[in-house]
Every structure is written in structure tokens, then in C-alpha cells.
UniProtKB/TrEMBL annotation, chain B:
Pfam families reported in the protein's UniProt record: Sigma70_r2, Sigma70_r4_2
Identification of the protein by name: RNA polymerase sigma factor 70 region 4 type 2 domain-containing protein
Listed GO MF terms: DNA binding; sigma factor activity
Domain of life: Bacteria
Swiss-Prot/TrEMBL keywords: DNA-binding, Sigma factor, Transcription, Transcription regulation
Residue span, RNA polymerase sigma factor 70 region 4 type domain: 112-164
Similarity comment: family membership: Belongs to the sigma-70 factor family. ECF subfamily.
PANTHER family attached to this UniProt entry: ECF RNA POLYMERASE SIGMA FACTOR SIGL, RNA POLYMERASE ECF-TYPE SIGMA FACTO
InterPro entries registered for this protein in UniProt: RNA_pol_sigma-70-like, RNA_pol_sigma-70_dom, RNA_pol_sigma70_r2, RNA_pol_sigma70_r4_t2, RNA_pol_sigma_r2, RNA_pol_sigma_r3/r4-like, WH-like_DNA-bd_sf
A Gene Ontology BP annotation from the UniProt entry: DNA-templated transcription initiation
SUPFAM superfamilies linked to this entry: Sigma2 domain of RNA polymerase sigma factors, Sigma3 and sigma4 domains of RNA polymerase sigma factors
Domain RNA polymerase sigma-70 region, residue spans: 13-78
Keyword Protease part of the UniProt annotation: no
Lineage of source species: Bacteria, Candidatus Magasanikiibacteriota
Length: 327, 183
């Protein structure tokens, strides 16, 4: 309800407009622009495709899709430098001249070349981890220190890519690959814990009152917060799956009772219940990925039990009893 | 009689200028800058059209250009503190508030509460909320504009709405004044 009220209030922002003067001044400026820089090609129609050359088909993509812009930039950098700049950028750290190439060209290009949803999630996770690796490298160098501005930049980018990773994992889950999404979450959380251990060691080695220690501890807070969020996502996914299985078993039990058939369905249903119990135990033990595996097994067994009953009823069409099968 | 390209383009201005301005305004919270960004959006759109490229969806093109301009603006602001916008309080101290073209008191619909919630979002989140609930785009259209998949947009929108709800709970209710319309 609160969300609907907020949405209603947001819609009322539509009343925000230009004043009449502002609108007319802007229109006049546009008219002047059109006069100073007239159309050079034939007239266009924005509803029908006309005389589209292959380049015109490509260029809208190249002009408008950021990932293609990144590809073009990467190609330009490679051609201009013989590939040296792009390769050198890979080793750069925040504050280096080529760091922008690494962050805004090299990495987006890698992302653009992955089309599978799981692979994209992995790429984003790697981008988040690389930020932590950069902080670790800077801190480990004897001649350098992790300055507040650099740490802030690393934190901002780490959180951005971590959020994108979680979104991509959620998208994999939405597509139906619950086990794949769980695996991604587990792997990401494991990697984050490993980085936290490295940052903890570096923090312990730093002088107690040094800027380095403060910045490392701040970064560790970001990592811990993200790890908790990933674990919470995984737990929510496991609980969601548990609920789905409970509903499925209840549905099949009701179906079997209605049809009154003794088939292998009972055995399968018993196995489904056992798998549900095993999954619940794993959930309580916070082994969320294993819980999801058990819940998926339980779901499949329950569905097979239902299919068994439906098949049996189809076979029993000897004219004596014809049962209506509910889908 | 078929429309000339100039007339067609001016129609885009008539149809979408308010929407593009509004979108920019609630991203940068600076009326003058929002007007400039809106104007720049149309300038770039004209250059795009002028070069002979085909436009299948004018509205999507304009939003995509505006979104990229606002993102650049946000990057400039984050790297240059002197470039930051005024806070909501500073704007109000200077008597600033968005006004509808009709200038009727009851149409001053922008409440402090909603603006504070929007200010509590980061730029990407604000962009999504505005496109969905103010500009009226569906997740598919937003995905096309931002070059993302609809699933990712749906997930992000869900999280943004949850964040808005949390921000709403944290926002103190402003005192009612005789000039503030009740919502």
C-alpha cells in the first residue's frame, strides 16, 4: 500500500513542466538550429524504414549502445597503440593514467563479449573482485599507501559492480536456473571472504593509527556488507524454493486423494518429502546452495508423482471408470 | 502533404520537450541546468537525424541521449565539488520550486517528501524510478533505452521501490503550511 501511495505521488511529478516562456524560447532556439544546420539527406520518416544501407543499420547500434561504443573505443586504442595501451592498462591501478582505459574500455569490452546470463554475472563478479585486488596491491606496495580518495573510488566501483553482480544473479534465478544462481552466489561470497581475509592481514600489518589501516578497515566494512547481502539473497532464494516445494507436495497429495489411485506416486511422494526434510535441515544449517539442490530434487519427485497418477488414469480407460484429470 | 524533416523534428519538441526537461530536472535538481540538458538533447538528436540515420522510436532516442548527458553531468559533479547542485534546503531558501506552465497553486504537486526520497537514491536508481513511474515507460522500453535485459531492469526496479519505501519511512513529515497543497 505504501508503495502504491509513493507511486501515485511520483506520477504527480508529471505536472512539472517548462513554463510557457521557457518552452517557446527553447523552441525558437531549436528552429534557429535547424535553419543554421539544415538537413543534408532526404526527408525521414520515423515510423517507416526507408533506404537503409548496411552502414545505417550498423551505425544506430554503434551510436546508441554503450557496449558497442566500448568495442569501438577498444579497437581505436588498439589500433593507435598497437594493442600496447590496452595490455598495459590491465596492470594499472587507481590514479594511473591508463586506469580509465582498464575500467571504462577493457572491462566493458569483456562484458560485451559474453551473452550467457551466468557468464555475465561472473564477469561482473570479477570486476568487483578486481577492485579489491587493486586495493590489496596498493596496500602491499612498500612505497605506497591507500589514500582516502583512492579508497573511496575503489569502494564506489566495488559497490557498483557488486550490486550489478547481485542483479545478474537474480536475473539468472528469474530465468529458472535456481541452482545456477545459487552457485554464483556461493562462489561470489566465498571470493569476498577470501579478499576480506587478505585485507584483514594487511590491516593488521599497518600501523595502528595510520591512514592505511583506517582505509583498509573501511573497505573491509564494504566487503562484509556485500557478503551479508549476497548471503541474504541466497537464503531468500532457498526459502522461496522451500515454499514452492511445500506447495507442490500439498498440491500433489490433494491430487492423489482426489483421484484415489495407488501407484508409484506414493513412493515418489515419500521420497519428495524426505528430500524436503533434508533440504530444510540444510537450510537451518545455512548450507543454502545444498538446500536448493535438495528442494529441486523434492520438486521433481513431487511432479513425477503427479505424472505417474495421470498416466495411470489414462491407462485405466476400459469403460468402467473414466476419471476426469485436472491439469 | 508529407511532413518535412524540420516539421517532424519540431513535432518531437512539442511532444516530448516537457517530459525530457522533467526527467533531467529530477535527476540534477537544477532547473536551469535541466533546461540546458534538454536543449542539448535535442541538439544532439538533430545531429543524429541530420547525418541520415534512421529513427524508429523518437521518444526512446531522446531519452537515451538525455540519460547519457545526465550520466556525464553526474560524473562531472562527483569529480568537481564546486559543481555540486544546491541542496533541497538551499533551493527552498532561494524560493525555488518547479512550477507548472499553468501556474495554478493547486498544481504545485512536488512535495518535499517525494523530492527527498529521490535525492536519497543514486543517479542510476533515480533514472529507473523516473522512467518507470513518472515517464511511464515499461521495463521492456527501459531495457531498450539503457541497453540492458528486461529481467535485470525488473530486478533493479523492484530493489529501487524497496529502497524508496525505506527512505519514505525515514523521511520526517514536513509541517503543513497554508501554501502547501495536501496530498
Amino acid at each position: 500500500m505504501k508503495s502504491l501511495l509513493l507511486q501515485f505521488k511520483l506520477r504527480r511529478l508529471r505536472a512539472t513542466k517548462l513554463t510557457a516562456d521557457e518552452f517557446n524560447v527553447g523552441k525558437q532556439q531549436l528552429v534557429s538550429l535547424l535553419r543554421e544546420r539544415p538537413m543534408v539527406r532526404m526527408e525521414f520518416d520515423d515510423r517507416h524504414t526507408q533506404q537503409r544501407s548496411p552502414m545505417n543499420q550498423l551505425f544506430p547500434l554503434l551510436s546508441l549502445r554503450p557496449m558497442y561504443i566500448a568495442l569501438v573505443l577498444a579497437l581505436a586504442v588498439t589500433v593507435a597503440t598497437g594493442g600496447g595501451a590496452a595490455i598495459a592498462a590491465e596492470q594499472s591501478l587507481p590514479g594511473d593514467v591508463l586506469y580509465t582505459v582498464k575500467l571504462n574500455v577493457n572491462e566493458p569490452v569483456k562484458a560485451a563479449l559474453t551473452f550467457d546470463a551466468k557468464a555475465r554475472a561472473n564477469v561482473e563478479a570479477k570486476r568487483a573482485e578486481r577492485r579489491l585486488e587493486e586495493a590489496e596491491k596498493i596496500s602491499a606496495e612498500a612505497r605506497a599507501e591507500l589514500e582516502p580518495e583512492v579508497r573511496a573510488e575503489i569502494s564506489t566501483n566495488f559497490k557498483r559492480f557488486a550490486d550489478q553482480t547481485r542483479e545478474r544473479i537474480a536475473a539468472v534465478d528469474v530465468e529458472g536456473d535456481t541452482h545456477g544462481a545459487a552457485e554464483l552466489s556461493v562462489n561470489f561470497a566465498t571470493a569476498l571472504r577470501a579478499h576480506d581475509a587478505v585485507l584483514a592481514r594487511l590491516s593488521a600489518e599497518a600501523t595502528a593509527s595510520s591512514t592505511q589501516k583506517i582505509e583498509l578497515d573501511d573497505l573491509r566494512d564494504d566487503v562484509k556488507e556485500t557478503t551479508l547481502a549476497v548471503s541474504a539473497d541466497l537464503k531468500a532464494a532457498a526459502e522461496g524454493r522451500q515454499k514452492a516445494v511445500e506447495n507442490k507436495i500439498a498440491e500433489v497429495v490433494k491430487f492423489i486423494v482426489e483421484v484415489k489411485q495407488q501407484t508409484n506416486a506414493d513412493a515418489r511422494l515419500a521420497a519428495a518429502r524426505a528430500a524436503l526434510a533434508a533440504g530444510t535441515a540444510k537450510l537451518k544449517a545455512a548450507a543454502y546452495a545444498e538446500a536448493i539442490v535438495e528442494f529441486n530434487k523434492a520438486f521433481d519427485l513431487a511432479q513425477e508423482a503427479k505424472t505417474d497418477v495421470k498416466a495411470k488414469v489414462r491407462v485405466d480407460t476400459d469403460g468402467l471408470i473414466k476419471l476426469k484429470i485436472n491439469p | 502533404m508529407p511532413h518535412s524533416s524540420d516539421q517532424q523534428f519540431i513535432r518531437w519538441y512539442d511532444d516530448y520537450a516537457d517530459a525530457i526537461f522533467r526527467h533531467c530536472y529530477y535527476r540534477v535538481f537544477d532547473r536551469e541546468r535541466a533546461r540546458e540538458l534538454m536543449q542539448e538533447t535535442y541538439t544532439r538528436a538533430w545531429e543524429y537525424v541530420r547525418s541520415g540515420k534512421n529513427v524508429e522510436n523518437a521518444r526512446a532516442l531522446l531519452y537515451r541521449i538525455a540519460n547519457n548527458l545526465v550520466i556525464d553531468e553526474a560524473r562531472k559533479r562527483s569529480s568537481n565539488p564546486t559543481y555540486a547542485t544546491s541542496s533541497l534546503e538551499e533551493l527552498h531558501e532561494h524560493g525555488f520550486d518547479p512550477v507548472s506552465r499553468h501556474d495554478h497553486l493547486h498544481e504545485l504537486v512536488t512535495t518535499d517528501e517525494v523530492r527527498r526520497i529521490l535525492e536519497g537514491l543514486n543517479d542510476d536508481e533515480r533514472s529507473l524510478i523516473l522512467m518507470r513511474y513518472v515517464d511511464g515507460f515499461g521495463p521492456q522500453d527501459i531495457a531498450r533505452i539503457l541497453s540492458e535485459t528486461p529481467n535485470v531492469i525488473s530486478v533493479r526496479l523492484h530493489r529501487c521501490v524497496q529502497k524508496c519505501a525505506r527512505l519514505k519511512s525515514a523521511v520526517p513529515t514536513p509541517p503543513k503550511t497554508s501554501e502547501t497543497p495536501a496530498l
